[in-house]
Amino acid sequence: MMASERAEIDSAAALWLERMRGPVQDSAIAASFDAWIAEDPRHVESYALMASLWQSEGFAQAACATRAGNDNGGDHEDGEGGPRARANRRWFGLVAGLAALAAVVPLAQGLFAPTHTYEAPWGTTREIVLADGSHIQLSGGSRLSVRLTPWSREADLEKGEAFFDVAHEALRGFAVEAKGARVEVLGTAFDIDVLAGGRREVRVYRGLVEVAGESGAWRLPAGTGLVLEGAHVRSLEGIGGDRPGWLDGWFDAQDTRLDRLIERLNRTARIPVVLDDPQLGELRVTGRFEMDSPQEIVETLAAIHDLSWSREEGRYRIGRQ
Amino acid sequence: MPRPDALLLARDGDSPGTDWTMVQSRLIGYLRARGARADLAEDIAQETVLRLIAISRTKEIGSVFALGFRIADNLLVDQHRAESRYADAGEGAEGEEGQWQTTAPSLDRVLDSRRAIEVFQRCLNRMPALRREVLVRRRLRNESCRAIGEDLALSGKAVEKHITRGLVDLRRAMEKAGIDPAGWNE
C-alpha cells in the first residue's frame, strides 16, 4: 500500500473514531460510517487500531504524566491563583502556538510554580490549608508536596497518610500521586495511606475519585475504598462517616497485619511501639483501637496473641512469651 | 424529539437488505485488529451478528457497525475476564470476593506496557503544545470538543483536527517503535 494511501486511511479512521464516540445524532453520519467500514477491509483494521490506542491505559498514563510535566512550561503566573484559571487557559490557548512568545517568557519567578513540601513530625497531625481552599490533614511521619498551577493541582504523597478535603473547581482537577498510584479527584473528600512494602490504601468519604494503579483505573464513589499492592487490587469494606477514624484518634483494624497497625499507631503516638521479632508483624488483628492510648493497645495486642510486652527506654516492646 | 438511544431508532418499515456476511467478515477484521485470537474473533463475530439480526427485526439500527463494535468489545472483554479469572483460580490467587473490575477493562495489554507508555509520552512531548493539550483533555477528562474549543479559543473543527492528527502521530510512533497494538500478550 502506498504510504499516502495509508496515511489517508489512518486519518479517516481517527476522525471516525472521534465522531462515533458520542451518541450518533445523525442518521446520515451513521450511514456514511457504515459505508466507509464496508468499503475496504483496511478501514476496519485501522479503525480498530485507533480505538485500541485511544482506549489503552498506556495512553492514559502517558497523558497523565505529560499533563503534570507540561504545566511547568506553560506556567507563567503565580501558581496559586484559582479564580483566574479560566482566563489563563484562554490566554494559554492563544499563545501556545507562538514560539516567539515562549522565548519572551523569561526564566523569571513564576515560570515554575513553586512546589511546597509539608512534613508532619512523628506524633503530630498537621493541618494544611491550600490557596485554593482545600484542607489537608497530614498524619505524623508523613511527607506531602503540592504544586498549584493555573491549570492543575498536583500533590505527591511520598510517605504516610493524608486526608484530603478538596475544594471543588470546575476547571482544575486535583490529582495525588502515591508511589505509582494516581488518584484523580472529581471535588471530594478522601484518604490515602502509603504503607511499607508498597501497599497503598484509598478511602473515599465524599464525591468521586478515579484511581489509576499499575493494573488499571477505577472510579470510587463515596463509602468505598481500594487497596493496591503491586498489580493486586482489593476493595476495602466498612468505610462510613465523613472522614477517616484516625482524625478522631481511632483506628479500625479489619484483619489488619500487626505491623501495619503499629506503623499507623506510631504516626500519632508519642511513645513508639516496636516488635522484638519482625515476624510477629504478620499476625492479624481486628477491632477498633483508640490511638491516644498506646499502652492500652499494646496490652490488648499482647492479650489477643498471647505475647509479652514491656516499656523501656522510651518505647513499648512487644515480644513472645 | 427525545432519542433514548440514537443507535436504536424505532422501526417504521422493512429493513433494507443488510449484507450480514460482509458485516461478519468486517467484525472478524475488527476483532483481530483488537488483538483477539482467530478462533475467538470468529465466535464473537458470529454471536454479534446474531444479536444484530435479532435487534434489527424490531428496531432500526442507526449504524450497524457502531453497534456491532460495541457488542463485540463487550463480548471480548467478558471473554478475557472469564479467562483471567480462570487463570487466577488456577494459580490460587486471592479470592474473587472483593476483587475490583476496572471501569475501562483494557483490551490492549501491549499498549499498557512500560515501553508503550514511554513511546506515548515521547510522542506527546514532541507534539505542538496545543495539540497535546487538546488530546490530553479529551482523553483524560473526556471533555467535549466544544468545551475544549471554548476554553482554548478554537473552533470545533480545529479541535477535531488536533485529535485526529494527534492519533495518527501516536499510531506512527508505535509503528516506529515496533509495538504492534494488535499483539495480545508480550
Automatic annotation (TrEMBL), chain B:
<dbReference type="InterPro" id="IPR013325">
    <property type="entry name" value="RNA_pol_sigma_r2"/>
</dbReference>
<dbReference type="InterPro" id="IPR036388">
    <property type="entry name" value="WH-like_DNA-bd_sf"/>
</dbReference>
<feature type="domain" description="RNA polymerase sigma-70 region 2">
    <location>
        <begin position="23"/>
        <end position="85"/>
    </location>
</feature>
<keyword id="KW-0804">Transcription</keyword>
<comment type="similarity">
    <text>Belongs to the sigma-70 factor family. ECF subfamily.</text>
</comment>
<dbReference type="InterPro" id="IPR039425">
    <property type="entry name" value="RNA_pol_sigma-70-like"/>
</dbReference>
<protein>
    <submittedName>
        <fullName>RNA polymerase sigma factor</fullName>
    </submittedName>
</protein>
<dbReference type="Pfam" id="PF08281">
    <property type="entry name" value="Sigma70_r4_2"/>
</dbReference>
<keyword id="KW-0731">Sigma factor</keyword>
<dbReference type="Pfam" id="PF04542">
    <property type="entry name" value="Sigma70_r2"/>
</dbReference>
<dbReference type="InterPro" id="IPR013324">
    <property type="entry name" value="RNA_pol_sigma_r3/r4-like"/>
</dbReference>
<dbReference type="InterPro" id="IPR014284">
    <property type="entry name" value="RNA_pol_sigma-70_dom"/>
</dbReference>
<dbReference type="InterPro" id="IPR007627">
    <property type="entry name" value="RNA_pol_sigma70_r2"/>
</dbReference>
<dbReference type="InterPro" id="IPR013249">
    <property type="entry name" value="RNA_pol_sigma70_r4_t2"/>
</dbReference>
<feature type="domain" description="RNA polymerase sigma factor 70 region 4 type 2">
    <location>
        <begin position="119"/>
        <end position="169"/>
    </location>
</feature>
<keyword id="KW-0805">Transcription regulation</keyword>
